[in-house]
Write a structure and sequence with these properties.
Blueprint lengths: L1 H10 L3 H10 L5 H4 L9 H16 L3 H4 L1 H9 L10 H12 L6 H10 L2 H26 L2 E3 L2 E3 L2 H8 L4 H38 L8 H18 L2 H29 L5 H13 L9 H16 L7 H5 L6 H30 L7 H6 L2 H12 L6 H31 L6 H23 L9 H20 L1 H12 L8 H4 L5 H4 L1
Antiparallel strand pairs: 1-2
Helix pairs in contact: 2-22, 4-9, 4-22, 6-17, 7-13, 7-17, 7-20, 8-15, 8-19, 9-14, 9-15, 9-17, 9-23, 10-11, 11-20, 11-21, 11-22, 12-21, 13-17, 13-20, 17-19, 20-21
Length: 508
Amino acid sequence: MEQIIQAINNVFRFVIPVSDFFWDFPTNFSWYANIPVIGNFSLAIILLVGSGIYFSFRTGFIQVTHFKKGVILLTKKKSEETGISSLASFLLSSAMRVGPGNILGVTGAIAVGGPGALFWMWVSAFFGMATAYTEAVLSQIFKEKKDDEFIGGLPFYGKKLLGNHLAAGIALSVMYIIYAMCCLPAQGFNVVSSIGQMAGIVTGSALATDSVFYYIVALVLLILTTYIAFGGIKKVTQVTDKVVPVMAVTYILIVFMLIVCNLNTIPYFFKAVFSGAFAPEAIFGGVFGTVLAQGVKRGLMSNEAGQGTITMAAAAASTEHPCEQGFVQSIGVFLDTIVICTLTGFVVVMAHLWTGSDAGAWMEMDRLPKFLTSAASLTPAKGLQPFVAFIITFCFCLFAFTCLVGMISFSEIAANRISKKKTFINSIRILGIVIAAFGILCSIAGLDLGNLWAISDLGNILIVFANIPLLYLGANYVFKATAHYKNKNHGSFTSDVIGSEKLYWDEK
């Protein structure tokens, strides 16, 4: 097994420099980097933050003016014969957004770019809410009905916006499926390893990764994942409806408890974040561009605004108007970054372990141990430390599990753009389960995924480069739909509102 992992790591050795090149381009060229101010901004940052600013102004800062409306839609109860409710769609998308990146990504961003990275996460998330609104509305406009479900998202609106060419939809579907499959090993690895960590906390001693316990956990996880995956989108939402509120509320409560117990360090938190955003400490590289890039990059990996990778959930919802799910998905970015990522940042920054005598040891730790060690230092009583570590690891486990089933489900939806045949859809489900099993075996073998983990970074930026131009192509449709919704006497939404060819909304 070890030889296989090493061989795969060697094959993908090129991934990290390629990923860094695309994320940093063109700041990795001196002629650009030497330009005052502008030279700090990579193309990725310009696209993501710039697009968010553009869509914010063009929609009248819809993420602010219709935030309350989104909350109302989430609390509205109604049964759906076709598709899923707005709440179920929100929880499904949150299952993907609120993932291990909320702990690993934020901790890593602060460790590399300093506390100031959190400020740029907030900025990118605020404007990213408008981007999430735009891609969600496009998903709703161009969704399609399949039996008692709605299917849509990036591959579907991409096909429509690129001249309705089948090849365009297939290419985008393949891109998403490859992206998801590359991320699945890490999620399988995270679930099993975190369960092992919880067992170690309970027993007081670390369990061998090749023990019977790990094999039993792996088997149960694969059976459970298979059962959920073959149940389709509605089975997945039944799981996320229950799991997402539990993991989100539990995580918020445990971190809030740590904050309350360390109220005296809150002023330090805000000082470190705001000063570090513009004047980073030398220990973190001391470069403004590094702080900015880490904040935007890790913020994206967490809330996925602009990637188009959450759009399948938006399309699956049954709504009265396409804009309604846009309001809901915008709130998803707020929950993920402004709430949950900020709480993670509170723990890491308030502990400020990089300033003490053990700073070097803390820097050398992996990202999850960095966070757990920070949480332990904020825990008021030593006897409570195992309890806090268990709860955080439990949340991390659920974060990874919901991402696991979500990615398989979204891959299935994307696959419908290629073929709706049952045999093909089942083959995608099986492929996802097998690849997740590979990550699980890596955990049992006690091996790290190494370079494979960097593939998600590369996949993130490539999908951004594919999705953002599509949002501009479809922007006028979104602006017309938004204007229609804002009209108090707007009536039913149809293809005539946006000047499009016949849509599902005409049948509705």
